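Two entries, shown back to back:
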Amino acid sequence: MNQSLLKVENLKVRFPIGRKSIFGQGKYLYAVDDVSFSVKKGETLGIVGESGSGKTTTALTVAQLEKCYSGRILFEGKDIVGSSKVELRNLREDIQFIFQDPYSSLNPRLRAEDIVAEPLISLKGLKKQDIGERIEELFQSVGLRSEQRRLFPHQFSGGQRQRLGIARAISTQPKLVICDEPVSALDVAVQAQILNLLTDLQEKFELTYLFISHDLGVIQHMCDSIAVMLDGKIVEYSDRINLFERPKNDYTKKLLSAVPKLDLE
């Protein structure tokens, strides 16, 4: 049985709303409210829900890009909440992010090879002249050509930019990759290519994914287990087959009824 790489326990993330009264405590919005889940090594957990459900905030908090109010985030059995700067630096090698918009997440002033090299230099302390072969391997792994290494982001198509973002994310050989709506900004044909690429890379590099999406068709295709979020809470948490064939929560049933039946097996 696979061990859990990531385990989230009773996670709460809150943001202040309005001005704090001089006569009482301030008010808070709980974007994530008592959320718990786990992700096994080599598998994919999908978090699905409508905009504002808290799924992206959950992902950002797991990556320690957002602070939590309470709860535990266990990565390889160690609670990473409140990690020091040195610990966070080491954590960045093991937990990487693929963002929704492949254009705004890439530095427009850097050439493609420098974008991919950036984590290797900043996190692993490698020198640019020593990582040429590694960059070439990464370009090949994501389906980009060697001659594209000197291009700037605006010279790539949307799908190619996302491939570039994926190459950057896997450059440090992470153990967990958080995919935040990684295909929602792409057209349908390109979506399928990127999803297949992510599946191939997971198998090749033994990656574990936390996959955020509002698209149940994508979630069904990619994920081993699924958490359905609504208003900051997980309202249903199940393996893929049971969730799609025997949903229990009314909100989950509503989501499933709103999309066409897909056979992606």
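entry 2 starts here
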Amino acid sequence: MKKFLQKYHIENKKIAVGVSGGADSLALVLMAAEQLVPCGYRVIALTVDHGLRPSSADEAAYVAEIMKQHQIEHHILRWQGEKPQSDVEAAARTARFELIGEWCQQNEVSCLLLAHHSYDQAETFFIRLQRGSGLEGLCAMREAVKRHNLLILRPLLNRSPEDMKNYLRQKKIAWINDESNDDERFLRNKIRHFLPELAQKTAITAEDICQTVTRLQSAEDYIQNKLAQFMATEVVNESGEIFYLNYAVFAKLHEEMQFRVLARLLGDEYMPRAGSVLRLRQQLLAPNFNGATLNGKEILRHNEQIWIVPEFSVKHKAYKAEWKEFIKHNPQYKRHKLPFKVKFALVQMWRKNDIQ
């Protein structure tokens, strides 16, 4: 475990572990304490009581008792307020991350360990496959991912869930079976129950799928590096939220890279749907392209440049006077022949930054 942390250059000695009471997370926190505490680390168990089942408080209390027996610091985080009536699983997952993230931020913890294992990875791969995901989606879960200021690490991602159960059996520690895992209305549970049968009939194991995912992640990393290079050298950023690039350079890119560039430029907090970006790519390359809007952005083609600007629904009446004032403070734009919407966006961003 120490070598795993060193791989990601973890310097903060406070390590949080998400613990639900299931075999995987219980084993992870006990392994972490066993291996890291003697090296000077402070291991902190965090349990979210979502309140969705009558037994959730009892489960959190059980985890607290196990942590007390092993002298591991433990905190219960409770999801307060009304619970959603639909898509409960996704809402609970979001609430769990928010509660743990807030606690870590307030307590200066920058690293969180989660107990996802090889079956979780295989399940995620098949779920993405069923949704028709591309390369990025089929990369499934990463061993390390940054969310805001929190680094999430999954040290068990290539290990079998049976390893964790055997570890707990040796220690004579019982774990909690989440009854919702048996509900086959959820696709993930259907896949989980299917994986042993897949291995028996085809010899394709969860570990095999994890190895394939690792290779896909390597390919994705290569594309991301190429994308970053292109964005740094070919895309010009004006006023923070306005971008442009040469149309001829864009047109020569591979289709996948064209898609990636547009998705990156159009994505703020939320990425647009892949289908929408693909349709935009086709429109943009057509000779008669007259502009489009997507994800709160306007896409324009003018004088061999592609422009991406924020979409403003209200056109300010004093535009001409404002453009004149803008040019007075930004004379480098005086000789530029720009479309009206780019000029308008430049003025709006200038006014916004000036006010701030």
